[in-house]
Specification:
Strand content: 25-35%
Number of helices: 4
Distance between the termini: 30 Å
Radius of gyration: 15 Å
Strand order of the largest sheet: 1-2-3-4-5
Shape: globular
Helix content: 25-40%
Structural class: alpha+beta
Number of strands: 5
């Protein structure tokens, strides 16, 4: 297994991961457009876990600059997913290890992410990786369906 940044040639594998994450179809063309934006922004880290030439897991970390208080950087994670057939092999752990190194290089004070309440198995893994359930309540406002 190799953890590395996603390349344009990986986008079909990434599309399949996002279908697994969201349980609905995803447009490769829209992913390509978004990927170009991510690729050009130095604060975005879109990582993939490659096994036998295929991307089977991914997460995205975004370095954020906090201007409140002491102004310490933090990282937000999004779109954490490993294909079901590859779970239990340490892939998610490896993705988290790599993104934590990147967060430290970027002098992030902490990593923050939310996870759907129904994802109990994932929550157990996040706890095992040292992440605490902060009992926060997440809020989201949709302006339009994007896929």
């Amino acid at each position: 297994m190799k953890i590395r940044r996603i390349k344009e040639s990986d986008l079909e594998d990434l599309r399949l991961l996002y279908i697994a994450l969201c349980n609905e179809e995803r447009s490769l063309e829209k992913i390509k457009v978004s990927f170009k934006q991510v690729e050009q922004n130095q604060n975005y880290y879109l990582l993939g876990a490659e096994v036998d030439g295929k991307i089977v897991g991914t997460l995205m970390g975004i370095v954020c600059y906090d201007v409140a208080g002491e102004g310490k950087n933090f990282m937000t994670l999004e779109n954490v997913v490993v294909l079901e057939d590859y779970r239990g092999r340490g892939i998610c752990r490896s993705l988290f290890n790599e993104i934590e190194k990147i967060a430290q290089v970027n002098q992030c004070d902490y990593i923050y992410f939310v996870s759907g309440a129904q994802r109990k198995e994932a929550h157990a893994l996040y706890t095992a990786l040292g992440y605490a359930d902060e009992k926060a309540k997440g809020f989201r406002k949709h302006f339009h369906k994007s896929f």
